[in-house]
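1st attempt posting a full record on here, be nice pls
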Amino acid sequence: MQSKEKTMMCSEEVRVRFNETDPLGIVWHGHYIVYFEDGREAFGRQHGLSYLDIQREGYVTPIVKSTCEHFLPLRYGETFRIDTIYVNSASAKLIFRYEIYNQENQLVCTGETIQVFLDSEGNLSLYNPDFFQKWKDKMEL
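the predicted structure (as tokens):
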């Protein structure tokens, strides 16, 4: 049985910067989390759900969980592609999965982040904020 759920994704090409490498000449593992953020930012711009859009609605979306698995290294000067996939959830949260591919289209790293909605007073939203539900409806999720 095939899933009828819509997949929303964004691909972004990035070049490894010198300051992101360690003495071994490979990207330090902590920078992959930054690459995930690059992917989320690109997704937000492409699909109308940027951090600024969320902030204008009176919310912030802190990360409460992140995972990252490494398979191959990236090196200074290489370009890579980060695919950011939105995972639809009935809960009031943002879930993104990430796949990073090197120039040879080999899988370098995978990961996931989970973000929750906090209102301007820092209260956790247990239900989807109105603006987010409207976005999901518009995206047919």
